[in-house]
Amino acid sequence: MSRSLALLAPFLILIAACSSAPKAPQPKDAAVAADEKIEIIDVHMHNHFSGKSERTSGITDSREQFLNELREANAVGAIVHMGAGEDTADQTLRDYGVLFCAGVEGKVNAALLESQLKSGRYGCIK
Predict the structure, then answer these.
(1) How far apart are CA 95 and CA 99, in angstroms?
(2) Which residue stretches of the chain have pLDDT < 70?
(3) What does the DSSP assignment read for 45-87?
(4) Closest Cα to residue 84, out of 72, 102, 61?
(5) Alpha-carbon dihedral angle through residues 79, 84, 87, 88, given to the nearest 10 degrees
(6) CA distance linking residue 71 with residue 40, whole number of Å
(7) How many CB atoms lie within 10 A of CB 75?
(8) Pairing of the two strands 75-84 and 40-45
(9) pLDDT for residue 27
(10) What count of other Cβ atoms lies within 10 Å of the Cβ of residue 70?
(11) For 100, how many CA atoms within 13 A lie in the half-sphere containing its CB?
């Protein structure tokens, strides 16, 4: 092997390796067409449903309004945060992709919390 070929061999190997390496996937264009709907999950909701108007927005706090907001946002699911010891989860909302998150603070009744998680009543802890 000639001396010049021996000196060029490592570079030729490197060039060959780089040109045959698979290309990284190209990121999808960040712009979304106006008519394209993005599916989302709302990760912080509550379901107290007083039936009264919320004091700052004036929006009625109701189950119907809750579901309307999910539909309008094209939400495929939501996580409802429950306060510690609160047991007002409207389990019928699970049919709409809603997951309930048990609130904990202070001394936790681990046995009760574990049974509620295992039963599917709650799907997460906050």
Answers:
(1) 10
(2) 1-34
(3) E-----SSBPTTT--B-SHHHHHHHHHHTTEEEEEEEEEET--
(4) 102
(5) -50
(6) 10
(7) 19
(8) parallel
(9) 58
(10) 21
(11) 26
pTM for the structure as a whole? 0.64
Q: What angle do CA 1, 14, 25 make, to 5 degrees?
A: 155
Measured from the Cβ of residue 32, the count of other Cβ atoms closer than 10 Å reads 10
Rounded to 5°, angle at Cα 124 from 121 and 126: 120
Q: Which helix (H) or strand (E) holds 18?
A: helix 3-20
* CB neighbours of residue 114 within 10 Å: 10
Place of tokens 């939400």: 75
Q: What are phi and psi of 43, to 5 degrees?
A: -95, 10
Tokens of 17: 């390796």
